[in-house]
């Protein structure tokens, strides 16, 4: 029976009758019927352009309402969790500690941000009062200040109204123009840096299109070369510098000792700067173990840790036996090279006497550990895939990454060796070698496993060193660059691109434009930033940055917000290094988690399945090595079982929290003038600063 409600007017203008309805089945139990009834229109199939019946509309509305309620509930749960974390860490101080700045370290920047925040709150209160009382007028044109309609004297409503009008006039006459000039200057810098980024991406695309990469002539190492003609292999020194690396010392020493190279043509130097006696004994025992297996390995320890890593490497290169070696490979403590590393890097030096450095690419075992590691992976993939590769192919110069590289020892000696004057000794030696005429090669297809910091505290300290050191080095190297004999365009590349644009201008405009001018423009609307500066260009640049890591595309928005969040740390570090402030020569070892690759985990499981303490000694082990092993064994037996590791408390970062409140205050102000895209950007960026300020990004703590 046809439905009682007639919706035929919804479905079409013309109703046809006598339409046959045919029902067929594999085992038919129904006959062919012809329904000749105007009411049968309800049974006809509905075309795409036609509407839906009441039940369908009701179900669609209910489904959409269910989805909306679910979305609201998810947002409410997230907001509640965030507020709970804020309450726990700010009001009760549970499991957290407030960041304490050392004298001269970031205090000036924090005071500036705190004063800016207080001023913005006062201005917001004034704007709210003006909004409620209806005193708002159209935004004045900066070029035509007379376009601001000011009321007559008879229209002024009391002293507060008069004060607000005076503020509007003062803002238009004295504040808006300087802000607009600074804004335009930062926009120009932003466009120049974006152009540089696009040129690098085009260079990378050209390399991929033409399949350009360093090649090796012939096959210099055959399968039986080690046994037949081992003397033809060059002498290689492998250095593994470390300092209190309890989590990763074993895997790094193991990887260095298992590199495929004739044993009489390689020496492994374990350069230990640890000040923890227990860790020193563990490292010595590991060195003894590999020495017993026939590996040519030595252990060096400095009593005075001067010059940090540069001093450690300099001390190791001063040994008498180093003169017998031609190349040196350097691996930091968390790096585990593949056994064929030397066979893929050393052959590039053959027949190329001007080549001083072969740099391999980093690969990260913990890139999917949390959101922080994923965002770091995006940045570092772009650095290696685009920056290092393009500069290596077209300029034969790039910054040495400090590890996973092979140096010609003659190039190090001709460039003055390792210097202790900065915390970026790797960039220092690379610049001096470039000024001396040495060339570099980057191998994008040779990867060395390592870790990225999993906690924001470790990442923040690492970024501080990486951005203060280059500015410190720039002050020291500028006279040498200008006086060098390299070509003018190479000098311009070093000064304008390598140092100024990528190390100084980038953190300057990022912090100034998005953390100072943007929120300030909400209170001074005459100097408003255009939408394309806030949204379109940053999104395009983030898209280009994420291209080398295509699996990270779902994180493009968090990446954009996090890069702006890190600008305060990078800007502070840049200023500290440029003006030689208190923490410009501060080196803090990046915390490691001891992550391993899948194969390393299998080896570790097999090793730990064996009983501890049954160390197999071989002939040739020295008496001192045996005493060290026995001493460590006795200490392990006498010592009580170690307590379970306690979770480190979270930090509260004052500068990030101040910026979070500042941006959220500016977001509230943007609502009064109905600035949609500005409001959303300020809101999400403020929440991003809040999450980072409360240490809610990175490894899960308490």
Question: Can you tell me about this structure?
Answer:
The protein has 20 helices and eleven strands. With 702 residues, the chain is an alpha/beta fold. β5 (266-272), α7 (277-292) and β6 form a beta-alpha-beta unit. α4 runs parallel beside α15 (531-546). The longest helix has 53 residues, at 158-210. Residues 1-19, 27-36, 137-148, 223-228, 601-625 and 642-647 have low confidence and may be disordered.
Q: How would you describe the shape? A: elongated
Strand order of the largest sheet: 6-5-4-7-9-8-10
**Main sheet summary:** 7 strands, mixed
Helix-residue proportion: 40-55%
Given as residue ranges, the uncertain stretches (5+ residues, pLDDT < 50) are 1-19, 27-36, 137-148, 223-228, 601-625, 642-647
Q: Output the radius of gyration.
A: 33 Å
Into which percentage range does the β-strand content fall? 5-15%
Task: Measure the end-to-end span.
Answer: 65 Å
β-strand number: 11
Q: Overall pLDDT, averaged?
A: 80
**Number of contiguous helices:** 20
Q: Give the structural class.
A: alpha/beta
